[in-house]
Specification:
Blueprint (H helix, E strand, L loop, with lengths): L8 H8 L4 E3 L8 E4 L6 H10 L7 H9 L3 E7 L6 E10 L4 E9 L8 H15 L4 E4 L6 H5 L19
Parallel strand pairs: 5-6
Antiparallel strand pairs: 1-2, 2-3, 3-4, 4-5
The protein binds coenzyme A.
């Protein structure tokens, strides 16, 4: 069951930045927060992305990629002194018409409780709030159904196709 452990808006804003909000939690003892403005510890972010099986990326490039991203979302497990990053997603785009979602990850310990779906819902809603209507992403083969079940449309459907230049 998904429930929400309650923190005041002021507490959330003070700890997680302007616009941060609660994410429904699978456990009433655990409070979860979405934030677009709490700075990331790049080592912690790297640990999260490695924990889902992705390879290491140079910290300097990751920092620049974050700086150049349109939207960076952290899903935090609340702790008054030591909040933990348990989910992440970011988007690139022109800020007006189009956006592409990258690096969607939920820590394996917290997978299977609906948090990935909540995270994607939050990302979609945030992009819509800034007026973006067309959102794309590249899904790994093992997670195509994760996106399909949330209403994403799989391409190619005959009239569009993605090409990947390997070299
Ligand atoms: C993909 C990922 C973000 C899903 O997070 P999660 O919190 O486990 O997902 P949820 O619990 O919200 O699952 C929502 C639904 O998708 C389904 N689902 C979850 N992972 C799935 C997968 N890999 N393949 C197919 N369906 C999946 C769930 O069964 C659930 O279905 P339901 O609504 O019918 O119960 C997470 O597994 C992850 O971080 N994976 C590794 C990184 C990755 O592959 N990211 C995507 C890059 S394209």
């Amino acid at each position: 069951m998904i429930s929400s452990f309650s923190l005041t808006t002021e507490e959330i804003r003070a700890a997680y930045g302007e616009g941060a909000c609660q994410c429904p939690s699978p456990n009433e003892q655990m409070s979860l927060i979405f934030s677009q403005s709490k700075p990331f510890d790049l080592v912690e972010l790297e640990q999260l992305l490695v924990s889902v099986g992705w390879s290491h990326r140079p910290v300097g490039k990751v920092r620049k990629a974050l700086d150049n991203s349109l939207l960076k979302v952290g899903l935090w497990k609340h702790d008054p002194t030591f909040p933990r990053l348990i989910g992440f997603a970011r988007c690139t785009g022109d800020g007006v018409l189009e956006a592409t979602v990258w690096d969607v990850a939920v820590n394996p310990l917290y997978q299977g409780f609906g948090l990935g779906k909540q995270l994607m819902g939050y990302v979609n809603q945030s992009l819509r709030q800034i007026g973006i209507r067309r959102i794309t992403l590249f899904a790994d083969p093992g997670v195509v159904n994760f996106y399909l079940s949330q209403g994403w449309i799989l391409e190619p459907k005959g009239h569009r196709c993605a090409f990947w230049y390997a070299n």
